[in-house]
Structures are given as structure tokens and as C-alpha cells.
Amino acid sequence: MREYLKFYIDGQWVDPIEPKTTNIINPATEEVSGTISLGSVADVEKAVAAARKAFSSWSKTSREERLKVLLAIQAEYERRQQELGEAITEEMGAPSALGNGFHVGLGSGHLATAIEVLKTFEFETLRGATLTVKEPIGVCALITPWNWPMNQIAVKVFPALATGCTMILKPPQLAPYSAQILAEIIHAAGVPAGVFNMVQGSGSVIGTALSTHPEVDMISFTGSESVGVEIAKNAAPGVKRVCQELGGKSAHIVLDDANLAQNVAAAAGGMMVNSGQTCSAGSRLLVPLSRMDEAIAAARQGAEGVTVGDPKSNVAMGPVVSKGQYNDIQRYIELGLSEGAKLVVGGPGRPDGLDKGYYVKPTVFVTTNDTTIGREEIFGPVLVMIGYDDIDHAVEIANDSPFGLAGYVVGADAAQCNAVARQLRTGWVSINGGFDFNAAFGGYKKSGNGREWGEFGFHEYLETKSLLGYAPAPAAG
Ligand code: NAD
Hints:
Elements: E1 2-4, E2 7-9, E3 12-14, E4 21-26, E5 31-37, H1 41-58, H2 63-79, H3 81-92, H4 96-120, E6 124-127, E7 130-136, E8 139-143, H5 149-163, E9 166-170, H6 177-188, E10 196-198, H7 203-212, E11 218-222, H8 225-235, E12 241-245, E13 251-254, H9 260-271, E14 284-288, H10 292-304, H11 323-338, E15 342-345, E16 363-366, H12 372-375, E17 382-388, H13 391-399, E18 403-404, E19 406-410, H14 414-423, E20 428-431, E21 444-445, H15 454-459, E22 462-467
Parallel strand pairs: 1-5, 8-9, 8-11, 9-10, 11-12, 13-14, 13-19, 14-17, 16-17, 19-20
Antiparallel strand pairs: 2-3, 4-5, 6-7, 7-22, 15-16, 18-21
Helix pairs in contact: 1-7, 2-4, 2-5, 2-6, 3-4, 3-6, 4-5, 7-8, 9-10
């Protein structure tokens, strides 16, 4: 049983000012796996004051000093990878291989990327007599979701540290363990007091206190659209920068010259990774209408190949994160049936033989783009397949969405893939499986306004200052 009752404020593990706890449920067993403290506004006050105090010195550190700190974090992170993976499996149900693999690996990938970017990032550029200086924005509130808990924290905390900002992390209440371990890693690495602070608790209390706090300069939020809007409204009177990384309903376009059976089966299996709880999931699979029968057979095969069960065993898919999430997904599956979508595989209820735990059947529907299940983010292992007439129609369907986070294009003709990818109104498009830690990640439209990952993530934490008539120092010698 885990017990994490202290917060990390001003370089120390401290008790909450007003003691209050909550139990954390293991989604695989529906049993209590541990207890955390829930913070109050008073804890936020303390954490923000510590971050404000630390900003005056941390913001003036050199690139080399910050690199040293990030390298120390990297050494600690590598040492505790196994623990992080186990915590992620326990808190949100990722299968061990995924937790220890991709979940923890994304964290270390973003850390290594931040280190590399910091080595050469241009904080100053001189053009004529104008010096443009990139300065840390100040005290940052980092509010993260539970679905890829370490990834979401890594893409905020490491660039914020690298750019000289100080911060208060508010991890998700449903998945607080990996964040707690990361705070231990940061402490062990010797990050100066007050630079990184962490307060656990609810969004309504801690999140609101951070979003409205006059001493918070910037908020980086990843989560749902409704909460993103509420944070922006709360932050507006203080004219804070608010970076939003929100939901998606991304199109995965299988072009006619692709190996259809292979790509559709892989896309159906891929949709089920992390139980479909991925903001950038290719949850709308667009296939040539003329080959829909072939696509249905391949999608069934892909989804049926996904083993579901105890995430500590050798399965491809564990439970979804919570009872609330399970109920939401079931509601969408029922809605798909009542809307007349064709059920290819899966459907309501738990998979056979799994009576306990928030397990959902890998589900595939064929529908049209105007249905609720074709438009809304389900955030579960539910794929919708939609037929298109020709390439222009595929692009039109892909772009006919309130969201614009990601896109996927697969096909044999590289020029055609590139042309389709260029037409998608989304912030991140993977062509034939392309992946890059240095590529900007973020959305168009209701998927948000922020850009994380690589050097693009640094800019979120920087102000731009122009010094006009700047006289460069005379060259030495
Ligand atoms: P959520 O919006 O419910 O919660 C996210 C975080 O916000 C949590 O820490 C929560 O406690 C906090 N919060 C809740 N209410 C708040 C408030 N009023 N003020 C401040 N903070 C508040 O989202 P979730 O259910 O944890 O995550 C799922 C959503 O996140 C999905 O929509 C998914 O698409 C999105 N997401 C987006 C990305 C991206 O990079 N674009 C990545 C992962 C997840």
C-alpha cells in the first residue's frame, strides 16, 4: 500500500497545512492501492511563494548550471525507471511492458531532448543594433492529466527547468504516484529549493487556486477542453499566458495504394494501446469506401488480436483508468449502437472472464463523420471507421472536426502522402509511422494553442525582450 502524504515545497517534504486525504483506486482490481494528501489553497500559497522567491536566482543561472542539474536528474531518473513503471501500472492500469517501456521511455526521451536543446538553444540573437533576448517567463503552474502521466509532466517540467523558470506541479488526482517519485528524483538531483514544487489535490481547489493566483505568470495545462476553457477564464483577469494542450479526434488515413489489410489491422491494434486513452490517437480510421469489406475484416483481426487483462501480466491492454471513465466509454458504445453504427467487434460490457476491474472490450464501429461517436473524443479503446470516395473526400472528412491535434497518413507513394499530410488542419501529422522527439506537438482549433516537445516547448516558457540600440561588447584582445 502506497502512502504519499507530504507535498514538495521549497526543497522539503512538508505536511499539508490542512490535513485531508483520499484513497487511490487500482483500476485493475477496484481496490485501494494507496493514499495521498489533498492540498488546500494555503498549500498553494506556500508553494507559489517558494517558487517566486527562487525565481530571482534560478532565472539568472547560466546554461551550464542548468545543464548540470538536468544531467543529475537524468542519472536519478535512469536509476528509478523500474519504480516509475510499476507506479504507472498501479495508478492508471498500463500493462507493465507499456508502463516500463513507452511511458517511462517518453519521460526519458523528453529529458534527453531538453538537455540536447539546452546545449545550443539561442537565448540571445543580435541583428544590427537590436538584441533579442529570450528570458524565463517566471513562476509557472503545470497542470497535468492521468493518461500518459510521466510524458505530460516531462514535456512541461524539463523545458521549464531548462529555460530558468520556477514551477508548481499539480499532478492528476487519479494518477499521483509517478509524479511523487519524480519529485523524489528532482530532490535527490539537488535542484535548488523552491525551483520545483509539487502540491497534490483536486482540480477545483489546487487548479483553481493556481489559475487565479496573481504571482503565477504562466499556466501550462494538458487535459480536457472544458477544463482548459475554465482555466483560461480564471487566468484572464491576471492576463497570464495559458498554454492549452487539449483533446482530439484524429484521422488516420489509409490511402488506396497502401497495404490495406496490414495497415488497417495495425491501426486497429494501435488504437487500443493505453486502452485508447491517448489524446493523439488515430480514433477515426479513414479507408477507401470501395474496400470497406476488406477493411472490416482487417480491423476485426487487429482488434481481436489485442489481449486484455491484468496489466501486471503479459497483455496488450489493461483496464481504463477509473469507474467514471469506464461508464463514459460504455455510454459512447451504447450511443454508437443507438445511432445505427455497424459494430465490427467488441461492444458493451467487460471482456469475457473479467468480472472485476475497469476493463473495456476493444471495439470497432463503422459509421459516418456526422455521428456523435464520429465527432466526439471517446478516450477509450473504441475505433470508428469511416469510408471515403477519393483523396479529396478523405481530406475533407479528416478536417471536418472541431479538433485538430494529430493525423496519420499511410500509403506507398511518398509524394502523395506528403501532399495529403500538408492539407490536414492539425498540428502534428505522422506519415508512415514517423516519430520525432524534436517535432512540435500541439493542436489547431479546439485541441489547444500550445506547442510542446523539443525546442518548441522551450518557447512556451520564455518572454521575448528587444534591446534596441544595443552596443555589443568590443571583441576581447
Ligand atoms: P481533465 O481536464 O479532467 O484534468 C486535467 C488536469 O486538470 C487534472 O490535473 C485535473 O485535476 C485538473 N483540473 C480539473 N479541473 C480543474 C480546474 N477547474 N482548474 C484547474 N485544473 C483543473 O483531463 P483528464 O481527464 O485528466 O485527461 C483527459 C483529457 O486530456 C482528454 O481530453 C485528452 O485528450 C486530454 N489530453 C490532451 C493531451 C495533449 O497533449 N493535447 C495530452 C493528454 C491528454
